[in-house]
Amino acid sequence: MKNIKKWVEHYISKYHKMPNLTLDEMKQYISECSNLSVPEVKPPAACGHAVVRKGIAYGIRFDSQWELAFYIKKHDIDGEHCERNYTVKFPYVSADGKQKNFIPDFNCGGNFYEIKGRWRPDDYCKQAQCPNITFLDAELMAPIIAEVNKFKPNWRNDYTPI
Predict the structure, then answer these.
(1) Helices marked H in 20-152
(2) Does residue 34 sit in helix, strand or coil?
(3) In 48-126, beta strands by DSSP E
(4) Residue 73: which domain range?
(5) Dist CA 57 CA 43 (whole Å)
(6) For a tag on the chain, would you pick the N or C end, based on fewer CB atoms within 10 A?
(7) Is residue 66 part of a domain?
(8) Model pTM?
(9) Which tens digit of pLDDT belongs to each residue from 66-114?
């Protein structure tokens, strides 16, 4: 692929996510980018802005209320075994070309999930290199939050900021 940077930027603008790239394609993309920038993405009105305050609910530490909403959806509504992931790591090559490890937010029956309030350059690398992890951003969280609001209207009251 000659100009992978242009192709990736077109793909992101069309699908709002990073395409699946091989490690060689990712290295080529990184080398073609002198300054990786992430386009400003506004969440849908139904979802509002992410509240990025760490807190505790159900005796579990969450990085945001979106994470709590996801947990309620999976655990309380869907009845799935879902827990915060603190141990399972996935290797990836960061935007600056360094080998790093990534720990997704949740492990639900062996399926891993990452809740994204804002996208940074490394997040696109994680998404491209860890295709088995589901990334949920504002667009994908909107229906989850709507369902949680119907199921448990005062769910935010269970969240204690820390």
Answers:
(1) 23-32, 65-71, 121-129, 138-151
(2) coil
(3) 55-57, 60-62, 82-84, 90-93, 99-102, 106-108, 111-115
(4) 58-161
(5) 24
(6) C
(7) yes
(8) 0.69
(9) 999 999 999 999 999 999 999 999 999 998 889 999 999 999 999 999 9
